[in-house]
Amino acid sequence: MGTFKRRCRTCDTLLASDNRGIQCGKCAAASTLSAPALPREFWTQPALREAFESRSIGEVFRAYRKAQNPTVSQTTLAAWLDLTQGRVSEIERTRRPVTDLERLERWCNALHVPHHLRWFNGGVREVHDVQELYASRTVDPSPAFSTQPTWAPVDQGSTAGPQELDIVHVAIPRLRRALDILDLPDDGPTRSLAELRADVALMNEHRLEARYGELVRHLPGLIGELARARQLLAADDRRQAASLLTLALRAADGVAYKYRYFDLSARLIDLMRTTAQESEDPLLPAAVSYVRTETFFASGDLHAAARALDLAADQIPTRNLKQAPTAAAFGALHMRAAVVAARAGKADIAADHLLTARYAIHAAPEGVYHGTAFGPASLRIHELAVAAELRDPAGIQRAATWQPPRELPAERRSHYYIDLARAQLDLGHHEDAYVCLQAARQAAPEHTRAHPQVRQALSVLLRTHPSLSTGLLDLAAWAGAR
């Protein structure tokens, strides 16, 4: 009777006689670098279905590991997810939900989770939607807590209605066409550089104040006019036009990325890199590198994001670090790198980047430098983002005792409250999370309404808040959460 020949489960080659595993050495080594693409029937196992229905990524991690044969270790799973083993263990143990949409998407992409199982993207839909909740007689008609806490901002901006959302989506094709003909712009008048500079400054003010509807009304025409100026002007003026075009493209990216046109955002950033080089401004490429991190956030490539930021910081002329614009460019890159490191679970590296950024604020008062806000208050907002990524209760508590000054751009202030809401929700502080989301809406309604983390947080609140007030239901309906 012949000996049974064992074969690799992945490539079907014969296994060596001393190989007790189910894969050959080459496939086993490759499988430690990335998660395998598993057959469809794998995802139908009862334990996995229960894990997805629990809407807990920790339960999904545990069920996913144990459903494979042999069981996948936490160390291997951590390598696939670009996390530490301790972070995987913490996520599996904790009862607090992970509400960061980008992290959930990145992890599910790494594990090749089928899209219909991703509850945070609309898979495994809720039994009740917001309208049904409104009709429920169990809803408490009065808010369970004040919508005006002592630490919330007092500025009352107009709330963004559906028309602003529609304006953005309608304008995207016009914006794409402006980029398509950047090297052969339409004929038309071309204003002076001073007038173009004032218009670009206004566009970036719209971006920083999260007035996206106003932004997209004017940007396509302005980009076309700057493209004409770049072709018609003399060499020195052409460099200034390239600098202005870079900032106009950045304003456009502020809309594209916020509304999840990731392909358009990546295209805009590539164009920004080209025009920034044409401008010969030594600090403008650093601002572009700060923005470029969005591309890596969208793809989940945190290693590349960290490398790109480190390289950009190394290229800044350190002899000029006592000058505010240079210090701001240097500090902003390290602020961003701290968030990248925190997303990867690298707390020590994140702390080092924050410390470096803290040195830079001594030379750079709070302000907007090459389109990026930097200074003491901006650094505190990034410190909160790091604490939220690392789920650091002490850091989150420190942030909760502070509020961003009204002089900060509205978009950045709303970022602070959105991050704080996510952090409070992770800690199980439902009322504080709701109050933060209301504060974010007051600060920058268009930015808040378009932010996926807001909808995700509100979806969690609708399921878990002990008292569904009318205010919470109003906010959820306004943001399109369910």
TrEMBL record:
The superkingdom listed in its UniProt entry is Bacteria
Family matches, as InterPro entries: Cro/C1-type_HTH (IPR001387), Lambda_DNA-bd_dom_sf (IPR010982), TPR-like_helical_dom_sf (IPR011990)
| Gene Ontology MF, one | DNA binding
What is the name attached to this protein's record?
A: XRE family transcriptional regulator
**Source organism (scientific name):** Saccharothrix syringae (Nocardiopsis syringae)
* Source organism phylogeny: Bacteria, Bacillati, Actinomycetota, Actinomycetes, Pseudonocardiales
